[in-house]
Design brief:
The complex is a heterodimer. Chain A is an alpha+beta fold. Chain A has helices at 16-24, 50-62, 116-120, and strands at 2-7, 29-35, 40-45, 66-69, 74-76, 96-98, 104-106, 126-128. Chain A is elongated and about 50 Å long. Chain B folds into three domains: 12-59 and 158-367, no CATH class; 69-152, no CATH class; 386-506, CBS-domain. In chain B, helix 2 (29-47) packs antiparallel against helix 4. Chain A binds chain B through residues 82-90, 92, 94, 98, 101-103, 116, 119-120, 122-124, and chain B through 56-58, 183-184, 186, 190-193, 258, 260-264, 268, 270, 323, 333-342.
Chain lengths: 129, 507
């Protein structure tokens, strides 16, 4: 499950994520992070579901971090896609494949939200959402 | 060997007669390969009259001549823009050429000539702006209006270089992401991008140009076009032949002419081209039957910023199309930039046109040459190279030197960089005055702990410009100059460059 975390001025300086990792023993992966002295935004991937995931979310919220589920990262307009493949090997996460007819397939779970594909697409049919 | 283009198995007249009566046997290149596999080349070349091909890729050397008609009062356009994209107006009063890679002045790297062509062909209104030179013939000074493809007199797609037989594949050995005309190349051999349609590639299916020449009728941008000659940079002896083509834009479609952007590189046009290959003799049949596994290209390292980029590997299109290529023991993912899906559609569409009797084959007036010298551009004014500027006095340290020895050398000689060599005098590291400062701060005792081991170097014949870029990229102020056997033969520092360049200018 991917989560977007928004840190405020008050909590950005505290090692909240490190606390959670120590507490839960979960291998949390930081996919994207933009942290300044005043505010921080992070996208993390938690390899867990159900109760344990809830535990993480509740802990984050108790520390004042705003938590949002990242449902979608990009959108491909399959009608306009020419199936060239420029996005396929540009994707560092192997989240875009080409099937035997060279049609593009997007594997949402693998996407790390880096948006390279948005830039790689020569026809501009991939949009960041 | 018999003359190129000999019509041994069938003539163009015989083929066209069969097309008109609906009896011609037409196959796409993919179908032909399968047929040859099943029945053998002998029977296939007897049975099949025409093999259709297709490619749909970025072709920067594309564009269109447009004639707008005369306004009242009339104008002689000397500068002209379509949707803010500059078009070439050094022609007669209201003719222009809009090139695919010309970029919008308001939205560069987003919108360009290729997009203007796609918009026009899709029936969209395009803004026309022009400035003129006022004369007795042409009193108007400027014009601003909109045009559609229907409004203008002629719109002729004229592409000086299209449909490369095959194209180099690209990889990136450097440690930063590169933004190229072969797509985004991830660092450290992160991915491979390749182009060309492989076994569907029009010019590879008649690789000695026995049937393709001036006047060959082709599928172009969804309509009908013609080959008008060899393309620029035609290099058939290396299977990198090209053609120039033209066709009436008014009967083409936005489906097969698509404006495109290569991020941080520029704009271009995806062009759809399909060529019918008449199986006039056995050699043409052999060529038309070539499979992806028999068509090879080179993976080139774009991490090296030179015209002569090193070849990392020779690969077949079959290997490329598998999506993975082995490079130095690693599996590197590969993906195309041209669309095989569209290429297959084009070959299929062309086949249908011929089967329906709507498209006849034409015998070329003159064949495209199958040899052409390929010249580089020689820079005739001498440019500064490392040798002109570097310090030739060699001051080096040994790995066995103490930090104090090194500090002494730097201060006594008044230098900031000391290359470190091994017992065979080969370069293994570099120490700067900054490293010495760090050594003191961090209480380091051994030279090996403070020297930089991955040394950025240059050769004496490298261009100063290239080395300066390298120094900026790595944020360093000096590079040891080495020979082919990794011996230090000098050093080049930013001091050398500024001092000598200033002196040169003063002289």
């Amino acid at each position: 499950m991917k989560l977007k975390l928004i840190y405020s001025h008050e909590n950005v300086k505290r090692p909240i994520l490190a606390e959670i990792i120590l507490k839960t023993n979960l291998l949390i992966n930081i996919i994207e992070a933009q942290v300044t002295a005043n505010i921080g935004e992070m996208i993390i991937d938690i390899p867990s579901e159900g109760e344990r995931l809830k535990e993480v979310i509740n802990y984050l919220r108790s520390k004042g971090v705003i938590v949002k589920e990242v449902i979608k990262t990009i959108e491909i307009d399959y009608e306009k896609c020419i199936g060239c493949g420029a996005c396929v090997s540009s994707c560092p996460a192997n989240a875009i494949k080409q099937n035997s007819n060279w049609n593009i397939e997007f594997i949402e779970e693998k996407c790390i939200g880096c948006k390279i594909c948005v830039y790689a697409c020569p026809i501009k049919v991939i949009k960041a959402v | 060997m018999e003359a190129r283009g000999v019509e041994e198995l069938r003539t163009y007249e015989e083929i066209n007669k069969k097309i008109k009566s609906g009896d011609a046997i037409v196959m796409t290149a993919t179908e032909f390969i399968e047929y040859v596999g099943r029945y053998g080349l002998e029977k296939a070349s007897k049975d099949v009259d025409v093999v259709t091909t297709g490619t749909f890729g970025a072709m920067c050397s594309s564009g269109a001549f447009l004639n707008f008609g005369h306004s009242d009062p009339p104008i002689k356009m000397i500068r002209c823009w379509l949707n803010d994209v500059p078009a070439y107006a050094g022609l007669a009063a209201v003719d222009c050429y809009i090139g695919a890679s010309s970029m919008s002045e308001t939205k560069p790297f987003e919108y360009g000539g290729g997009h203007v062509i796609e918009d026009l062909v899709s029936g969209k209104e395009v803004e026309l702006r022009a400035e003129g030179r006022v004369t007795d013939c042409y009193p108007r000074e400027s014009i601003e209006t909109t045009v559609t493809l229907d409004d203008i007199n002629q719109a002729i797609l004229v592409n000086p270089r299209n449909a490369y037989q095959r194209y180099n594949a690209a990889i990136n050995s450097s440690n930063r992401t590169l933004y190229t005309y072969l797509g985004i190349l991830l660092p450290n051999y992160g991915n491979i991008h390749y182009c060309g349609a492989g076994e569907l590639s029009p010019l590879y299916k008649d690789k000695d140009f026995e049937t393709i020449g001036i006047g060959t009728r082709i599928f172009l941008g969804g309509g009908i076009g013609y080959v008008i000659g060899e393309g620029t940079q035609h290099n058939p002896q290396n299977q990198m032949g090209t053609i120039s083509v033209c066709g009436n834009l008014k009967q083409m479609s936005g489906e097969y002419l698509k404006g495109a952007v290569f991020y941080r590189y520029g704009t271009t046009l995806y062009v759809g081209i399909g060529i019918p290959i008449p199986i006039i003799n056995k050699r043409v049949a052999v060529s038309a039957a070539l499979k992806d596994s028999e068509i090879f290209t080179n993976v080139i390292d774009f991490g090296v910023p030179s015209r002569n980029r090193p070849i990392v590997k020779k690969v077949s299109y079959a290997e490329l199309k598998s999506g993975k290529v082995e490079i130095n023991g690693m599996e590197v993912k590969a993906s195309p930039l041209s669309s095989f899906k569209y290429a297959a559609n084009i070959a299929e569409t062309l086949k249908k046109w011929i089967e329906k009797g709507e498209f006849l084959l034409s015998r070329p007036v003159e064949l495209i040459p199958n040899y052409r010298e390929f010249k580089p551009l020689i820079i005739k004014r001498r440019e500064l190279i490392v040798k002109d500027v570097m310090t030739k006095e060699i001051i080096i340290g040994k790995l066995t030197d103490s930090i104090k020895d090194v500090a002494k050398k730097l201060t006594e000689r008044g230098i900031d960089h000391l290359p470190i060599v091994d017992s065979e005098n080969k370069l293994i590291g570099i120490v700067t005055s900054w490293d010495l400062a760090k050594a003191i701060a961090q209480d380091k005792k051994e030279l090996v702990d403070i020297m930089t081991k991955r040394v950025i170097t240059a050769k004496e014949n490298d261009l100063i410009d290239t080395v300066v870029k390298r120094m900026e990229e790595y944020k360093i102020s000096g590079v040891p100059i080495i020979n082919d056997s990794n011996h230090v033969i000098g050093i080049l520092t930013t001091d050398d460059i500024s001092r000598k360049l200033v002196r040169r200018r003063l002289l």
